[in-house]
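=== RUN LOG ===
request id: a7f3
mode: sequence -> structure
chains: 1
length: 127
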Amino acid sequence: MATNQKFKADDYISVNVGLERSSGEPFVKGALVGVLTTGSGSATTPVPDGKRLGVGNEPGWASVALTGGYRLPVPAGDTWLVGDIVYITAGQALTKTASGNTRFGVVTHEPKTSNVGTGFVVIKIGA
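=== RESULT ===
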């Protein structure tokens, strides 16, 4: 085994995501994309604050999954079909627009077949 290996699988990380982010939110930092599996710590204490934030994390830090399929909200104005590529903006919003955004994943289940209203789709992160 390589003596310099730090993690066998590096699919879940703890990273600074900003204050008071909620579990289940999409995330991008540089080329890393994922979904928060815990909320981030609040500004004042690294313990849960009644809003299910923190879960013992330091202020601004959360656990993030870099792999998996997650049911996430998508905005109105587009259909979201199985196989569609999903991007994420610097402001952490999901979009179908590639220009200026980071690839987030691919829709794998629960397509949103109408462009009217917001909805949910299942997205495989990093695909």
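=== NOTES ===
DSSP finds no helices and nine strands in the chain.
The chain has a mean pLDDT of 87.
=== END ===
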